[in-house]
Amino acid sequence: MSLQSVQAFFASHAPEIQVIETEASSATVALAAEAHGVEPDQIAKTICLRAGETVLLLVTAGTRRLDNRKFRDHFGAKPRMLGGEDVVELTSHPIGGVCPFGLAAPLSIYCDLSLKDHAIVVPAAGATNSAVRIAPERMAELVSATWVDVCGMPKEPAEQSDQ
Question: Which residues contact 4 (CB under 8 A, 6 or more apart)?
Answer without folding.
Answer: 102, 126
